[in-house]
Amino acid sequence: MILPIIGYGDPVLRKVCEPIAPDYPNLKETIADMYETMYNAYGVGLAAPQVGLPIRLFVIDTKPFGEDEDLSNEEQTQLKGFRKTFINAKMIKEEGEEWGFNEGCLSIPEVREDVYRHEQITIEYDDEDFNRKIEVFDGLIARVIQHEYDHIEGILFTDKISSLKKQLIKKKLQNIMDGKARPDYRMKFVAPKKGR
């Protein structure tokens, strides 16, 4: 089922999310709905707070990045094959050079900015079957994981840009809060425009 994506300004996007247990109600359906919602919106990642759930869960599929012809065949193959569910994730290490990349967010439509993140991460998480894993990721995969991990910590990519850039996008952010954004996927806004 395609769920509405929660828009910028909703308090759920600012919550530090709670861990969940294997008996969390309807977990398999929630995960399936999150993937379906993400694909419907042409995203590469989606965190539970973006569908209104303050839990430590996010899903990632970097296949769209694998279409980039500027990348090596190895990088393309790696990105095309990366699809993972992260439950109760805990960032252990972020290291290496910080590098910039133009990021967007399904909860903040029509806003894209360069964000600097570490090249490599070590993360501990449970998979869909609650097997505990510790893995190291780098490059674009690490970046997508960091972006989604921030969501479960109540952090948005707009928190990582300069004060000047924040001023420049202030009107766009207000429009999202006012329900005036028009993405081509379902959204739930803080203050929907009257008459919608």
Automatic annotation (TrEMBL):
The active site is at E148. GO terms for biological process: translation. Its EC number is 3.5.1.88. It holds the Pfam family Pep_deformylase. It is an enzyme of class 3 (hydrolase). Fe cation binds at C105, H147, H151. One of its GO terms (molecular function) is peptide deformylase activity. Binds 1 Fe(2+) ion. It catalyses: N-terminal N-formyl-L-methionyl-[peptide] + H2O = N-terminal L-methionyl-[peptide] + formate. InterPro entries: Peptide_deformylase, Peptide_deformylase_sf. Removes the formyl group from the N-terminal Met of newly synthesized proteins. Requires at least a dipeptide for an efficient rate of reaction. N-terminal L-methionine is a prerequisite for activity but the enzyme has broad specificity at other positions. This is Peptide deformylase. It comes from Flavobacterium caeni.
